[in-house]
Known about the structure:
alpha+beta; Jelly Rolls; Immunoglobulin-like; TIM Barrel; 4 domains; 43 strands; 34% strand; globular
Amino acid sequence: MIYISLAGDWNLYFGPQGEVKSINEAKGKFQRISATVPGDVYLDLLKAGLIEDPFFGKNYLDLRRYEFYQWWYEKEFEVPKEILGKKFELVFYGIDTISTIWLNGKLLGETRNMFVEHSFDVTDLIKENNTLIVKIDSPLLWAKEKKYEAINISWEGRDEALWLRKAQHSFGWDIAPRIVSSGIWKDVELKEIKDNEIEELYYATSKIEDNLAYLDVFFKFRTNLKYFEEFLLRFTFTDKNGKKQIFEFPVEFITGHINISLKDPLLWWPRGYGDPNLYDVKCELIYNGEVLDEKTDRIGIRTVHLERTESAEEDGVFRFIINGIPVRLRGSNWVPLDAFHSRDRERAIPALELFDDLGCNIIRCWGGGVYESSEFFDFCDTHGITVWQDFALACARYPQEEAFQKEIEEEAKKVIKRLRNHPSLVLWAGDNECDYAYNMENLLPSDNVLTRKTLPSICKRLDPYRPYLPSSPYLSDKVVKSEGNLSPPEQHLWGPRDYYKSRFYTENKAKFISEIGYHGCPNLESLKKFIPKEYLWPWDNDYWRAHSVEHWRTRKRGYNRNELMANQIKELFGSIPEDINDFILASQITQAEAKKFFIERARLSDNIWGIIWWNVIDCWPQISDAIVDYYFSKKLAYYYIKRVQEPFCIMMTEPESWYVKIVGVNDTPIEKKGTYKVYDIDTKEELSSGEFSVSSLDKRILGKIRVSRGEQRLFIIEWEIDNKKFLNHYLLGYPPFSLARYKEWLKIILKEVSLE
């Protein structure tokens, strides 16, 4: 198989979009700089010294004019003489977004979707010396020509994004700046087209029983041979121990289904429930004893089912059943890795290592970003991290026209086929909060043809063994028509964002929490990297605001998250510190205690089957809910969360009838035994201790301590299992607490922790 990479240096010509119709006109009228592919035009402008760093200060607000520019990429490349005459396709793995492509002066086609690959048969056009031209038009001027109807709305004011299959966060979000850029953001390559090739393989575990796993394998291959009688497919399954199971099947057509019974299967399990076992599967296409093509995949043997009710009330439930076992999931939302997606690749594995270190066994890929790489899913496969995948739709009522339905269907086809063999992927969700966009104006979310017809249809056709959820949160007609009397079982818990133990957080009826967050300031060294020195303090200024408020176009809009964060500090400590170091620390303590409480409440509950908090890491330098900033500097919450996401953890309940309970929560398939003790951090008095034994997938009260809600105390919980020590803590009492006192407590809380 021959591959020729076209990554690297290109020429880039650019200027205001207008009358330029050809590369020659662009060369005569537009400015030229060098471009990097994969890349982004703004990064090329930055490298050329034509713009200032968009991530520093308020510089990103100066990029508005470039939203109306046109960009012409040019690449000259050679093809060795000896391979001329072979069949080739030109593959663009990601173009952002509105492009037209020519090869050697011939029009290849157009693209309108940054999320998926685009390929063109160039067999008849390839020469020894070649010129490739890619024109990328202004996304705003393209969107300006589309039709908009009364049903359409971006309920946060991004209407220009509705028709564009472009990362929605790039138009401005509370987690990302408005940077409406363009570029060839993924690899480009010339790829040989083989005469005989396995085109599709879909491995699905339909059933597991009696030491057998039943697999439904769908195949499709391409051949230039006219007869099919002599074809054979050979599958070789190899487990982690090197044990092989080989299956051979004669095939009489280019497509079909094969049923395979795998003996004594090693199952794939989420983290905490067992090993994420994988099989290397080689499929060989054989004709008259000759191997014409082969394809290797890594798959996991597992079944997945989403058990859910229409409402949280009336014995409501929302939980995942994996291999017949209900699993409790704890993890975080995956937001864009970088505001410039061409830099995603270098950040992906370091970011995933944070999720793994935190003990996450679920990641929700939020619908305002992009679909992640195969490397992302490979990591999740091997580390037992389940993935909830939103389709790339968020916070809007999108066009319902047939043309847009077709665009979404074609996008979903490519995404599903690329990702469906990953065992970590446990759910397709239609969108993020688009049901809200209907319900907020008394419209029925079930009228949304995209998530009620287009997407479920394509999911069932291409990936019938994986569950589908129409929206997150999904608002059924039953819930919507109840006029507030019923609530969905899966919820995003934002609300007033006041005290983290307020009734909003403690009395909601959610059975699965898929979004919840609390603010924390980055460390001082990080702040210095993106806020000018003279504006570092006090916090209430335009530069802080530029990195914490939704900025769209050239105007400010949205809520002031710095003020919200300051008020959350005041809620816990009674006042807002006047020193920047105390302000940062107080905000990080507030965030850490809040998120720890959210996770503990979910894990202590019998009815909450999962929590996906917001979020691990930022996509740009900002003040946010993230527990790791853009520069990979960890906030205090990182260490608190890592402790309470241990598969076995000891926690304390809120006071009731004069007591707090000490509870061991065991989210593992094996019994946990050990010793524990609880002591008062100030007096060092031991309040409870002893041996414990907690059955698999169970929780048990280990002891209780008499308390008064009027007291302000901090308890340290220590336990040991198999000579390994663990620690947690519990903060008792009502705010305001003393920041000076908490600083002293922190020395004990963080013992044996090396802050980075």
